[in-house]
Amino acid sequence: MKLRNPPVNSLSLELLTELVIGLEKLENDKTFRGVILTSDRPGVFSAGLDLTEMCGRNPAHYAEYWKAVQELWLRLYPSSLVLVAAINGASPAGGCLMSLTCDYRVLADNPKYVIGLNETLLGIVAPFWFRDSLVNTIGHRASERALQLGLLFSPAEALQVGMVDQVVPEDQVQSTALSVMSRWMAIPDHARQLTKIMMRKATVDHMIKQREADLQNFVNFISRDSIQKSLQVYLEKLKQKKG
């Protein structure tokens, strides 16, 4: 499954919706046992959440957008499919979150391809389920430091901290992902799926229980004048960079 939303695969409401529908179809078709998640845009896996969906809109739109973000995580994190992230570009914020939901992560060895949850750099707080996804992958102390500082890890750093499982030359990312998939496919589905749910159920249940409160927190937070101003400033900087 290749992400394609030029120029940087931002997770727009439309892309989120398409991803959820696509994953649901694959899960319901028992001939599919696994998905390799990658990018169709050279140099960027996904730039993460689409800030234009979170800036200058009304609270109803913010709620609709955040529900779609929650839905994607709830579709990916407990998925019965084997999910392998073939990360062939930079993967900050929401892009990193998507990869964290996968069972295995392969990252291209390019110093420009950074990965991490860098929300604090934008004045935004990563929600608890972003945190839980990271803590479950790299541990509490490393996550605490990474989240507070909004760290973006180089491939070597990401491998060292355990954020990715393998770093390979750029031209070997897809072939490595396929090789990894074969290894996971060799395990009987029922045993692997039950083990995955056993490992992830508490995190998923916590998110579902708190889903409505998380939605309200997001809408209240993102609607603040100070947050809207900081997002506007950041988006303006991006426009100037493009210019």
UniProtKB/TrEMBL annotation:
GO molecular function, one term: delta(3)-delta(2)-enoyl-CoA isomerase activity
Catalytic reaction list: (2E)-tetradecenoyl-CoA = (3Z)-tetradecenoyl-CoA; (3Z)-decenoyl-CoA = (2E)-decenoyl-CoA; a (3E)-enoyl-CoA = a 4-saturated (2E)-enoyl-CoA; (3Z)-dodecenoyl-CoA = (2E)-dodecenoyl-CoA
Matches recorded under Gene3D superfamilies: 2-enoyl-CoA Hydratase, Chain A, domain 1, 6.10.250.170
GO biological process, one term: fatty acid beta-oxidation
Transit peptide recorded as keyword: yes
UniProt key word Lipid metabolism: yes
GO CC annotation terms, alphabetical: mitochondrial matrix
Residues of the signal peptide: none
CDD domains: crotonase-like
Pathway this chain belongs to: Lipid metabolism; fatty acid beta-oxidation
The entry's keywords: Acetylation, Fatty acid metabolism, Isomerase, Lipid metabolism, Mitochondrion, Transit peptide
Subcellular location: Mitochondrion matrix
EC number in record: 5.3.3.8
Similarity remark: Belongs to the enoyl-CoA hydratase/isomerase family.
Biological role stated in the UniProt entry: Key enzyme of fatty acid beta-oxidation. Able to isomerize both 3-cis (3Z) and 3-trans (3E) double bonds into the 2-trans (2E) form in a range of enoyl-CoA species, with a preference for (3Z)-enoyl-CoAs over (3E)-enoyl-CoAs. The catalytic efficiency of this enzyme is not affected by the fatty acyl chain length.
Subunit structure as annotated in this protein's UniProt entry: Homotrimer.
Name the UniProt record assigns to this protein: Enoyl-CoA delta isomerase 1, mitochondrial
Species of the source: Sciurus vulgaris (Eurasian red squirrel)
Lineage of the organism: Eukaryota, Metazoa, Chordata, Craniata, Vertebrata
UniProt gene name: ECI1
